[in-house]
């Protein structure tokens, strides 16, 4: 397969880093972003000819456009985008402030839109792929997850609508399942007092029993898909990728 060019957000660790590692292992070139500059720099130092990076807050004004410009300036095109960043802060609907809800939506929804909009014209040129990282919480309700789950449901809807509007590209939402990442650690730390007891315990048990999925498993599936998208799946939602 010829070398392609990708943008991956939330790329410094966890699922995003697993996606990047697989793409680099297949000789692709990647523009990465996250808040942790030192971790992004490690990718650049290990693969100087394949990586460019831009550290910063993904909700910041203009960062999506800068990432797209960096990809085109450095590598000449954009074949695909993996929009992967996100945050989960368990809080019940009745107690979550409107301000906190807006802030989470800025991260989990509006910055996704910004990245897709900024890169769309370049992805159309290559008939490439926009992969939106979703969650099973978009389809299954969890107590104290209303903001997170609804933001992911909105992502699923946007992805499917984009697939209809832009038939030359592949737009797909993929959920990785329960993976062993910092988000799971945050859930175990903060969810005890807000989540349903049985649901909360199921996440704790999964961690303690070692049944959480390693990021490499769904990361490999996502990386392979964005590099060689199955266009017939455009508009669909794919969950539990292991």
TrEMBL record:
Key words of the record: NADP, Oxidoreductase
Pfam families: adh_short
Keyword Nucleus: no
Example GO molecular function: oxidoreductase activity, acting on NAD(P)H, oxygen as acceptor
Taxonomic superkingdom: Eukaryota
Xref: SUPFAM superfamilies: NAD(P)-binding Rossmann-fold domains (SSF51735)
Family per similarity comment: Belongs to the short-chain dehydrogenases/reductases (SDR) family.
Protein name: Short-chain dehydrogenase
Annotated organism of origin: Trichoderma cornu-damae
Taxonomic classification: Eukaryota, Fungi, Dikarya, Ascomycota, Pezizomycotina
């Amino acid at each position: 397969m010829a070398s392609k060019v990708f943008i991956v957000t939330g790329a410094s660790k966890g699922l995003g880093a697993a996606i990047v590692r697989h793409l680099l292992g297949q000789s692709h070139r990647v523009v990465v972003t996250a808040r942790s500059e030192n971790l992004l720099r490690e990718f650049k130092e290990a693969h100087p000819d394949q990586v460019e990076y831009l550290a910063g807050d993904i909700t910041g004004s203009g960062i999506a456009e800068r990432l797209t410009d960096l990809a085109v300036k450095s590598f000449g095109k954009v074949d695909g985008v993996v929009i992967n960043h996100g945050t989960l802060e368990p809080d019940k609907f009745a107690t979550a402030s409107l301000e906190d809800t807006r802030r989470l939506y800025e991260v989990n929804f509006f910055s996704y839109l910004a990245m897709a909009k900024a890169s769309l014209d370049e992805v159309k040129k290559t008939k490439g792929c926009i992969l939106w990282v979703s969650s099973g919480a978009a389809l299954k309700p969890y107590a104290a997850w209303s903001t997170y789950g609804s933001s992911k449901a909105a992502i699923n809807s946007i992805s499917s609508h984009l697939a209809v509007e832009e038939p030359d590209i592949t737009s797909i939402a993929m959920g990785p399942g329960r993976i062993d990442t910092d988000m799971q650690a945050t859930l175990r730390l903060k969810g005890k007092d807000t989540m349903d007891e049985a649901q909360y315990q199921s996440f704790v048990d999964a961690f303690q029993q070692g049944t959480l999925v390693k990021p490499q498993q769904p990361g490999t599936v996502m990386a392979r898909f964005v590099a060689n998208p199955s266009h017939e799946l455009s508009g669909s939602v794919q969950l539990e990728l292991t």
